[in-house]
Amino acid sequence: MATIPITTRGAQLLKEELHRLKTVERHAVVQAIAEARAQGDLSENAEYEAAKDKQGFIEGRIQEIEGKLAAAQIIDPSSLNAGGKVVFGATVDLEEESTGAAVTYQIVGDDEADLKQGRISISSPIARALIGKDVGSVADVQAPGGVKSYEIVDVRYI
Hints:
Layout (H helix, E strand, L loop, with lengths): L3 E4 H30 L8 H25 L1 E4 L15 E6 L5 E7 L10 E3 L3 H6 L7 E6 L2 E11 L2
Parallel strand pairs: 1-2, 4-5
Antiparallel strand pairs: 3-4, 3-7, 6-7
Helix pairs in contact: 1-2
């Protein structure tokens, strides 16, 4: 099984979700199924069907998270020493060359990506263009609107 890179923060979020699913959500859906069963005929019981569907989703998500955590390669960005190069977990300050717009991204695992919070997936085009470059380098990214060039202003491991 291939390892999946994930930051310590991302691993902690997955562990918290797994704990919540196992201790809260799982018990709540079992209770909902029991209440729906008590209503009698299960063949036309919408509440029972909805509860069973939710149970299937919860159990599937639990298995998915356990699999991801088992295959995870947890990387602590603050312990990295990549000599100023852009690597997984690094926080990168960029300046778009054509507009001068400044943006900051942290390169994270696929499950952690959230563009609104400045976290981009390691498999995204911009992250792939940045990996291995250092401060002062220019990364050309193929975007839907054409090629965009970003200058790397700073690389931090936080």
